[in-house]
């Protein structure tokens, strides 16, 4: 029997649990932002990913992301399908101190939350059946290739691209897929539907922020100073972004908005994700401030363009992920992390160019592919709900349930 390091293994199991908690956290966050006839409709889209993605991960997902190299390093192979060869004695190749099972479970939690992020864009407009098809296809053809190319030793990793915890793999791909979904599905009939529960948004933000320590610090895949650096960078960037957003919005609309503060925090969390373990604390401060400002501007642009990204997935996650990936190209430092590289500030011009090209390419691919995929799904089953269903609300028309029993209020 292999002897694994109990500290590292225990920490990675904790980090895995934290990332798992982010998906229900996202459901609360989105559930609070949705109109009150669409709370369950948006929440089930997050929770169902926990089930379906786990099944897919067991069947082929883990293997396609983390075994072998096919199609020139674009995706893995089926060597580890059905967890073949992943047993009590197999160690994770990147850190022999932890069992491969634990790494497999940790990465599975990332695969679960990524497609769930997209759902905030098309709240109360998409049939559940079409979403399930979307969930499966999007992972197979967008998430798995990028997870392999960046984290599985594939094409982008060979090119020197870095992404500590998912700026490209998670946020940029999901954010631009969200934008494509919005443009394909069109606007809601009732654009003015206000958040039904700001306390629910706050609970969701709290769970996301808490879970994000597992997301970013856990991505060190060990317990050392880099783990601590990623942890504190995460908190600092989120805090600076939240305050920046609050101040900008207060200046613009003359009121300090709670939802704005919460949105700013999530933007900061998304933006620091690719850089968390590769940059200094001072860089994290700059990244946080930049995130609060740039993501606020992105949301303003979205409103001006009339894109009905209901819960600002593109402006917060898409633009945040891109910004963080590019700023990693600026601030990365081997002094912070010897396994990383030096960014623009430390003479790494080529690295900066590679980061920028990689994230722009990922955004274009995710956008074009998602749009085309929705068009194909629409030939099989209607993607957009009927006007009557939308007016009634998806909770009742799609799921036959209500979030609140209005009879007893």
Report on the structure:
- With about 400 residues, the protein is mainly alpha-helical.
- The chain has one domain (about 5-395): Orthogonal Bundle (Ammonium transporter fold), CATH 1.10.3430.
- It has helices at about 5-35, 40-65, 100-120, 130-150, 155-160, 165-185, 200-215, 225-255, 260-270, 280-305, 315-330, 350-380, 385-390, 395-400, and strands at about 90, 95-100.
- Strand 1 (about 90) and strand 2 form a beta hairpin.
- The longest helix has about 30 residues, at about 350-380.
- The radius of gyration is 20 Å and the shape is globular.
Quick tags:
single chain; 409 residues; mainly alpha; Ammonium transporter fold; two-stranded antiparallel ribbon; 2 strands
Explain the layout of strands and helices.
Elements lengths: L5 H28 L5 H28 L24 E2 L2 E5 H19 L9 H24 L3 H4 L8 H19 L12 H19 L8 H29 L4 H15 L8 H25 L7 H19 L17 H32 L6 H6 L1 H6 L10
Antiparallel strand pairs: 1-2
CATH top level label:
Mainly Alpha
Number of H/I helices: 14
Give me the CATH architecture, please. Answer: Orthogonal Bundle
Instruction: Please give the order of strands in the largest beta sheet.
Output: 1-2
Q: CATH homologous superfamily?
A: Ammonium transporter AmtB like domains
User: Secondary-structure element order, as H and E?
Assistant: HHEEHHHHHHHHHHHH
Unreliable stretches (pLDDT < 50, length at least 5) are none
Count structural domains.
1
- How would you state the average pLDDT, rounded? 95
SS content category:
mainly alpha
Work out the radius of gyration.
20 Å
Distance between the first and last residues' Cα: 58 Å
Shape designation: globular
- Compute the number of strand runs: 2
Q: Which percent band covers the strand fraction?
A: under 5%
Task: Summarize the amount of helix as a percent range.
Answer: 55-70%
What profile does the largest beta sheet have?
2 strands, antiparallel
What is the CATH fold-level name? Answer: Ammonium transporter fold
Instruction: Classify the oligomer.
Output: single chain
């Amino acid at each position: 029997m292999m002897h694994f390091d109990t500290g590292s293994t225990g920490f990675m199991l904790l980090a895995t649990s934290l990332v798992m908690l982010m998906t229900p956290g996202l459901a609360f966050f989105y559930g609070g932002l949705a109109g009150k006839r669409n709370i369950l409709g948006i929440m089930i889209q997050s929770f169902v990913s926990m089930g379906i993605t786990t099944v897919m991960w067991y069947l082929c997902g883990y293997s396609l992301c983390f075994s072998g190299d096919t199609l020139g390093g674009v995706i893995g192979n089926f060597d580890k399908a059905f967890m073949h060869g992943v047993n009590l004695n197999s160690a994770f190749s990147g850190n022999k101190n932890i069992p491969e099972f634990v790494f497999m479970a940790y990465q599975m939690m990332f695969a679960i939350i990524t497609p769930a992020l997209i759902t905030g864009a098309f709240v109360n407009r998409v049939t559940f059946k079409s979403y399930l098809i979307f969930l499966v296809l999007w992972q197979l053809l967008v998430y798995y290739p990028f997870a392999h190319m960046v984290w599985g030793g594939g094409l982008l990793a060979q090119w020197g691209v870095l992404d500590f915890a998912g700026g490209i793999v998670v946020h940029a791909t999901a954010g631009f897929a969200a934008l494509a979904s919005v443009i394909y599905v069109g606007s809601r009939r009732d654009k003015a539907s206000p958040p039904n529960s700001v306390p629910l948004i706050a609970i969701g933000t709290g769970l996301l922020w808490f879970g994000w320590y597992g997301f970013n610090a856990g991505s060190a895949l060990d317990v050392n100073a880099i783990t601590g650096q990623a942890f504190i960078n995460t908190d600092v960037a989120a805090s600076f972004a939240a305050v920046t957003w609050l101040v900008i919005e207060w200046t613009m609309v003359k009121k300090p908005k709670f939802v704005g503060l919460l949105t700013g925090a999530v933007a900061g969390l998304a933006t620091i994700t690719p850089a968390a373990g590769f940059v200094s604390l001072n860089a994290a401060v700059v990244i946080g401030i930049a995130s609060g400002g740039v993501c606020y501007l992105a949301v303003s642009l979205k409103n001006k363009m009339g894109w009905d990204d209901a819960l600002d997935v593109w402006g917060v996650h898409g633009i945040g992920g891109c910004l963080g990936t590019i700023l990693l190209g600026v601030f990365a430092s081997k002094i912070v992390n010897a396994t990383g590289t030096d960014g623009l500030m430390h003479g790494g011009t080529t690295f900066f160019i590679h980061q920028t090209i990689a994230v722009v390419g990922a955004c274009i691919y995710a956008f074009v592919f998602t749009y085309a995929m929705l068009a194909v799904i629409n030939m099989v089953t209607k993607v957009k709900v009927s006007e009557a269903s939308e007016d009634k609300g998806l909770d009742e028309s799609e799921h036959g349930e209500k979030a609140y029993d209005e009879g007893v209020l």
